[in-house]
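Q:
Got a chain?
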Amino acid sequence: MNRLQTSIYYLQELKYRLAYAIFGTIFLFSTTYTYKQGLIFLFLPKGLSHFVSTGLTEIFFTYLQICTIFSFSFGIGITLTQLYLFLRPGLYDFEAKTTFNLLLTAFLFYTCLYVFVFPIIVKIFWELFSSYAQNFTAIDLTFEPRLQDYLSHLQQLNKALTLSFPCLIVLNIVQIYTNRQTWVKYRGIAYIAAFFIAAFITPPDVLSQVLIGLPLIMFYEIQLKIWSLHEEYKKQLLIR
């Protein structure tokens, strides 16, 4: 009987935690939709005078898409926090500290990523691709950006940046259970896997896959180099 009451209590608490996450996501969606026009200006490049809209309902669905992505991104963070608070009493002290440090690291990582790195990447890509429209001097043509195309590319970039932290976590886990020689021996397989992941999360064009696959390969090489330096550092400590 006590076990049944305890199970009912935990199920009720889990239900409340999930309800908090759902209400928080709905509240974020309603808030972002209320300030949708101000929100969309945060994603626009500087110096842009106008966008072209080709469909009558394109603006409406564009607003819905932005608000959905924004609210669900924060909703995932709220859900993970509520799950941690639900599981915290049943975890060991080491497990609780590890999970808390992982959540805190993810929060700081994504905050720095979207506050500092994301605007720089958007600015570089915009200046790179808009220069072709401005310097097209062969004949008198004018190229104007479409809002839907611009936001779809931002969505792909956001997806790639979102998967960067899980990729680092997976690389660290693989590092714990493998040795450096295995990483060096199967480096080619890692490159193929990077482009396979890029093909899975990007549109079917070579440019998008290269833009996603190359950073994954850079993460792999940087992790391998840091691992080598760490092993050399431990050897020097043992010699001393």
